[in-house]
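step: validate -> pass
step: tokenize input -> pass
step: predict -> running
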Amino acid sequence: MDDKPLVNRVANSGLITINLEDFFPKEKVVIFDLKNYLFKELILKEKDFRTELKEHDWSQYKGVNLLVICSTDAIIPVWAYMLVAGYAEPFANEIFQGDEETFYKVAFEKALMNFDGSQHEGGRIIIKGCSNKPVPPAAYVMLTKKLRPFAQAIMYGEPCSTVPIFKRPRVLRKK
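step: predict -> pass
step: emit ->
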């Protein structure tokens, strides 16, 4: 039996792993569907709509990300979304008009806006690939764009199995 100590080559490789799940919104996402407030799921009657919103328990949205949608093919006036936002604003963490996929794309854009790629100057970076949360492909694009001017190399995947994305050419020094 070999008495050599085990060496963690990944830990000693100098690779930097960035997990986009770390930028994922921490608050729960709740959908507010205007369909439930339409007459026959087609027509918005202003007086009835205002009454129902006024009687709605808005406190249930405390601290959540509220997505306001209409899941039917009804024509919804813009002011209806504004009215919902007006009631939800004191309670909800975020109020977003649109579907979950678009919400996550925008949330990652906001989170990565202040990401400083220069902190990884000359680094060999792995952008973690497997995710337990719905990280949108746009987030991977945004992060790559932020890192490329600074990184020596960018890879996608896991340290044991990566796909090369970018490698800075080595500069040859003249003698």
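step: describe -> Residues 100-113 form the longest helix (14 residues).
step: cleanup -> pass
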